[in-house]
Design goal:
alpha+beta, 639 residues, eight-stranded parallel beta sheet, nine-stranded antiparallel beta sheet, 36 strands
Length: 639
């Protein structure tokens, strides 16, 4: 790959001329670029030294001037310029216009496909952005006064005929080169607890979460026979004085209170949990519901409250960050060890760890790669000891987070759920499914909570069904609907989960589906394919559905069953069925099953029907529970 090299000085990027193959020099700087071939993957390393030092936000810039035969691309780009915790797809044809803080690029040419991934090594990371000369790869460590850049893996490039395997190949190569044992999704077992339906307190109660509200919600689940098996005590449960005393009149003012809160102890709010966290969890457990606890990596949103006994006890374990408040140190310390031991003693069984990409509070404290590695090693060593690393990672999609997590299996892959919001859903489905093209190669993906009774409930439920990740809702009191949830689960609450993170179909990958056409999401379960079809526009849309839309689906002949219309098609792999969606309220779900003498569809009231039975032999099928089922037979079947 042909690259140009630049160095940032006084806010300007200055060219560093190429002296020989991989060697770039000017009067004060030497840069070495090494490209290592690993089959289809090219790993790009950078090292450098300078007598005038390096800019902490862009030490070295590599520029790709063009991609031969480029037709279109989709990027994974940060949704915020100052806080790269969430990413979303951006579509384009001109690499000079790629958004800042881009983590991944997949492109299409006339002949094949290609991909670039940013990487974070032990100290330095990279981010991509468009620039006047092409596609820039900025290499930096967020740490000032550096005069050398140690040899660092900064980018992985891969090309091939199948776009669905590019990031997998790149991630496997990257983990090997970084010395990570495993590190890919298939090396991270999906936690057993998340195989069942869950609930989260956030949208239900927010700043007013309390023991009595939580128990009232559990009673509702019991009365409605909704088999919730786990619950997250989300933000606002903790001992933070402002959360109990502050007044607010809208969501925005509540969020300001939340973001200003700091932690006074490991305990729950004394006002809203008067008998303590252990007592509250015990009452929830009486309803057959296991409990997990939310917390941010910083202790709380503004760290630890100074001038308290708690602060004095852990003072040696805290650090003053560049924002001016105290948070737990990154390197191994007793803070998280003691915190998790306390939560375990109260009956907590898993964690949701938030605010993970918050390294903008730690500029110039240490290289960003070192900070990220220390943070995740510290948290996960304690989480493994007390909770077998049963963790939902959150607000942590930044490159430094993705390459640093040792063992935890699940990460949120989209911005927060917003009830009663059609525009949010359009953004949400694209964030989740496109982010899974990269994020889903490293971890299992969590599509976030949702409500069963808002105007997007059907679309949200179908998206969770095909997601391949955990499923949990956040309905407030008296608003949970059993009939909306039951198509996703069995009577005992076990979710009918697909086998991998859901991703777009190839014909939807390089165009913006909010502008025209249907949007199709694909997954597999066993040897069957699943396709969900959406209309993300304000108009009627048309498209096609085919067994060939499902990547890696085995077989040549199929029965395709549509869940909502009950239509059945007999198709070869390349056959297509035309579909129309009149408006954005309509959606479709196609189950694609390899054809045999008896093609069993399964329980028809469930979305992922192939997960509702076991095949014992060619003509014998065992349903997992009672219900109406369907099958297709070549022969007449006697009643």
């Amino acid at each position: 790959m042909k690259l140009k090299v630049y160095k940032k000085e006084n806010g300007k990027f200055l060219s560093v001329p190429c002296e020989s193959d991989g060697v770039f020099k000017n009067d004060n700087t030497q840069v070495y670029v090494e490209q290592v071939s690993m089959g289809a993957v090219t790993a790009i390393y950078v090292s450098a030294k300078s007598i005038v030092g390096f800019d902490s936000e862009s030490a070295i810039r590599l520029v790709i001037e063009s991609i031969d035969g480029l037709e279109s691309y989709v990027t994974g780009s940060s949704t915020y310029t100052d806080y790269n915790c969430w990413y979303a797809p951006v579509f384009g044809t001109d690499i000079r216009k790629i958004n800042p803080i881009t983590q991944s690029v997949i492109w299409k040419t006339k002949e094949n496909y290609g991909a670039l991934l940013s990487v974070c090594d032990k100290e330095y990371k990279s981010e991509m952005t468009g620039c006047e000369d092409g596609l820039a790869i900025d290499v930096f460590d967020n740490n000032s006064d550096e005069f050398t850049v140690p040899k660092s893996l900064v980018t992985l490039c891969v090309t091939g005929e199948n776009p669905f395997v590019l990031n997998k190949k790149a991630v496997l190569a990257g983990m090997k080169l970084l010395g990570k044992k495993g590190g890919t999704r298939t090396d991270r077992p999906f936690p057993e607890i998340f195989e069942y339906l869950g609930w989260c307190s956030w949208d239900a109660f927010q700043i007013r979460v309390s023991e009595e509200n939580l128990v009232s919600k559990c009673k509702e689940f019991k009365e409605k026979n909704i088999p919730v098996r786990w619950a997250i005590l989300d933000d606002m449960w903790a001992d933070c004085i402002d959360l109990d005393t502050a007044e607010y009149d809208n969501f925005e003012s509540m969020m300001k209170i939340m973001k200003a809160s700091s932690l006074n102890s490991f305990e729950a709010s004394h006002k809203r949990f008067p008998k303590g966290l252990k007592h509250a969890i015990k009452r929830i457990n009486e309803y057959g519901i296991k409990v997990g606890i939310w917390h941010p990596t910083t202790g709380y949103w503004k760290g630890i409250t100074p001038d308290t006994e708690f602060f004095e006890k852990y003072k040696s374990e805290l650090v003053l960050n560049t924002a001016g408040w105290y948070q737990p140190k990154f390197e191994e310390n007793t803070f998280f060890e003691d915190f998790y031991a306390y939560l375990k003693s109260c009956g907590c069984e898993f964690l949701k760890v938030d605010n993970q990409s918050s390294f903008h509070f730690n500029r110039n404290m240490a290289p960003i790669g070192k900070l990220a590695s220390s943070l995740h090693n510290n948290i996960e060593s304690a989480a493994k000891r007390y909770f077998d690393n049963t963790v939902i990672n959150c607000m942590g999609l930044a490159t430094e987070n993705m390459w640093a997590r040792p063992e935890s299996a699940i990460t949120r892959c989209s911005d927060d759920f917003q009830p009663e919001n059609k525009e949010w859903f359009r953004k949400h489905i694209l964030q989740c499914t496109f982010n899974c093209l990269f994020i889903g190669e490293i971890m299992w993906c969590d599509y976030d909570m949702w409500w069963t009774d808002d105007n997007q409930a059907l679309k949200n439920s179908l998206l969770r069904a095909i997601s391949g990740g955990p499923i949990y809702v956040s309905d407030t009191l008296a608003r949970s609907k059993r009939d909306v949830l039951m198509p996703l689960i069995l009577e005992d609450g076990k979710i009918l989960r697909c086998d991998r993170p859901a991703i777009p179909t190839l014909d939807c990958m390089f165009k913006n589906p909010t502008e025209k056409g249907v949007y199709k999401v694909q997954n597999i379960c066993g040897n069957s394919g699943i396709i969900a079809v959406y209309n993300l526009t304000d108009n009627k849309v048309c498209g096609t559905v085919s067994p060939a839309d499902v990547f890696d689906l085995p077989g040549d002949g199929f029965i395709m069953y549509e869940h909502f219309t009950k239509e059945v098609y007999s198709l070869s792999k390349e056959d297509m069925v035309n579909i129309e969606l009149e408006n954005d309220e309509e959606c479709r779900l196609f189950v694609i099953i390899p054809k045999s003498q008896i093609t069993f569809i399964g329980l028809t009231e469930k979305f992922i029907s192939p997960k509702t039975y076991e095949r014992l032999n060619d003509n014998t099928f065992l349903l997992k529970e009672e219900g109406r089922f369907a099958f297709v037979s070549d022969d007449t079947v006697a009643k």
